[in-house]
Structures are given as structure tokens and as C-alpha cells.
């Protein structure tokens, strides 16, 4: 049985990349809901419908575990999904806790970069309120990065000016950690590093999710000895054209180069 991965688009490949590091012998099925992205700019009700339709499809494929590799989808639906399905469902959320722990001793702030919908959700605010005792967490929506990623636009000469414009009102010297609160954002880590001072740490929740996935499979005695095979779907349709498959593999390769 395969492990299912779901995202609104190609951002979840950054989480899949970490899963392949920690579970290289598993086989995977990756579902990108490209017909309906970006989720972060749509209504909560609309996005919930898309999420449940996608997970229904993945459940029909017989997955043994599912990773919601999308911060927005996790914040909106992960609790309800766990009520409906009997296989393990893992979500991903902005890595606020380690960021706050790292910055408190340095007297620095945390900046969470995410989508509008993630930052508006009660789940995010509850997370911050439970951790941020000294009011050091700030946030900024960057929907343009999602649009760039879905267009495979990663050139720094395009991305860096956008980031500079969006961050123009921020005093970047105040921050100790930047949290990438959208799975599309790790593609742009190098560009983000060019904007912030060198000592600023940039983190995401992908590694923690991959480690948790491995822990759950080990506990359930479900570790597989496959080949790391990946089947890709776009909004319920198998990805068969060579160009798209090549682009997806290039994204995995790009992440490998970034270490």
C-alpha cells in the first residue's frame, strides 16, 4: 500500500521530498489539486469541499496513511478528516513553537510567512496564543509566492523584487527566525535568505512531519520495502504527460541541491 500526499498544488512536493529522505523505500501517491489552487485566496467552505473530494479519491486508492502537505488544508480540515477516515492522517502547521523557543533567548521576533487563509484560521491563532507568551510572533501573507511556484517561476530576479516590496515596511533586523508557513515557500528559501540578515534562521514544518510519519508507520508495523515509486495525480487525473512529470522530478532535484 502507498502513502498518500495531498496539496492544493506543487508545494507538497517539498514535504514529499523530506518523506523520501526518511522513508526512501516507501511507495507514494501524490495528489495536487491544481484545478482549484490557490486555496489561500478562496473561502473556507469552498476549500473544505475540494479537500474532502481529494481525500475521498485517495482513500479509494487504498492508502495506508495520508499526509495533508498543505498548511491551509491542515488548518481547515485535518480534525474533521480524522473523524471520517480510519487510516492515519498527518497535517502540517507553521513551525511556530521551535521558532519562538529559538528567539526568546535572543530577544528577537518571529516572522511567519503563509497564505491569507492559513493566517486567518482559528487553528493558527490558537497555536500562536498557546506559545507566544512575549508577543514576538508577527505574520505576513505572501500569496504571490504560491502563484510563482505554480508557474514554475523561481528566478531570483523576479522573486527578490516581490519579496522586497512585500517586506518594505518591516525592520528585518528585529527577526531571529522566519517560519515558512506554506509548503510552496521552501522553493524560494534562497531568495528569502537574500532579503534577511545572514544570521536569521529559516525553518519549516516539513522535517517534523516526515519524522512523525516514520514514527507512526513503525508503531503500526507498516514500514514497506518498496522502491520509492511515486504516482502523480492532478485533481483526480493521472499525470501522464512527460513535461509535467519532468517538472515534478526537477522540483525534487532542486530541493536535493538545496540540501
From TrEMBL:
Name this protein carries in UniProt: Glutamate racemase
InterPro entries reported in the protein's UniProt record: Asp/Glu/hydantoin_racemase (IPR015942), Asp/Glu_race (IPR001920), Asp/Glu_racemase_AS_1 (IPR018187), Glu_race (IPR004391)
Reaction(s) catalysed (UniProt annotation): L-glutamate = D-glutamate
Pathway: Cell wall biogenesis; peptidoglycan biosynthesis
Molecular-function annotations in GO: glutamate racemase activity; identical protein binding
Protein family per UniProt: Belongs to the aspartate/glutamate racemases family.
UniProt function note: Provides the (R)-glutamate required for cell wall biosynthesis.
Gene3D superfamilies associated with the record: 3.40.50.1860
EC number: 5.1.1.3
UniProt cross-references to SUPFAM superfamilies, sorted A to Z: Aspartate/glutamate racemase
Pfam families (UniProt xref): Asp_Glu_race
One GO BP annotation of this record: peptidoglycan biosynthetic process
UniProt KW keywords: Cell shape, Cell wall biogenesis/degradation, Isomerase, Peptidoglycan synthesis
Active site per UniProt: 70 (proton donor/acceptor), 182 (proton donor/acceptor)
PANTHER family, per the entry: GLUTAMATE RACEMASE
Sequence positions that bind substrate: 7-8, 39-40, 71-72, 183-184
HAMAP family from the UniProt entry: Glu_racemase (MF_00258)
Amino acid at each position: 500500500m502507498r502513502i498518500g500526499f495531498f496539496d492544493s498544488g506543487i508545494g507538497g512536493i517539498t514535504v514529499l521530498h523530506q518523506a523520501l529522505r526518511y522513508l526512501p523505500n516507501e511507495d507514494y501517491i501524490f495528489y495536487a489539486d491544481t484545478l482549484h489552487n490557490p486555496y489561500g485566496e478562496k473561502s473556507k467552505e469552498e476549500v473544505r469541499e475540494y479537500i474532502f473530494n481529494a481525500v475521498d479519491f485517495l482513500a479509494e486508492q487504498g492508502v495506508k496513511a495520508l499526509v495533508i502537505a498543505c498548511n491551509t488544508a491542515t488548518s481547515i480540515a485535518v480534525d474533521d478528516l480524522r473523524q471520517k477516515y480510519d487510516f492515519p492522517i498527518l497535517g502540517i502547521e507553521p513551525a511556530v513553537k521551535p521558532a519562538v523557543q529559538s528567539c526568546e533567548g535572543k530577544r528577537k521576533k518571529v516572522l511567519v510567512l503563509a497564505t491569507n487563509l492559513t493566517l486567518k484560521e482559528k487553528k493558527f491563532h490558537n497555536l500562536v496564543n498557546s506559545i507566544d507568551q512575549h508577543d514576538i510572533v508577527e505574520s505576513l501573507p505572501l500569496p504571490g509566492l504560491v502563484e510563482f511556484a505554480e508557474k514554475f517561476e523561481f528566478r531570483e530576479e523576479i522573486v527578490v523584487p516581490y519579496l522586497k516590496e512585500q517586506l518594505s515596511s518591516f525592520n528585518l533586523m528585529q527577526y531571529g527566525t522566519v517560519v515558512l508557513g506554506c509548503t510552496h515557500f521552501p522553493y524560494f528559501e534562497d531568495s528569502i535568505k537574500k532579503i534577511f540578515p545572514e544570521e536569521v534562521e529559516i525553518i519549516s514544518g516539513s522535517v517534523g512531519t516526515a519524522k512523525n510519519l516514520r514514527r507512526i508507520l513503525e508503531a503500526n508495523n507498516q514500514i514497506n520495502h518498496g522502491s520509492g515509486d511515486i504516482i502523480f495525480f492532478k485533481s483526480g487525473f493521472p499525470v501522464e504527460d512527460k513535461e509535467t512529470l519532468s517538472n515534478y522530478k526537477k522540483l525534487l532535484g532542486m530541493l536535493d541541491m538545496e540540501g
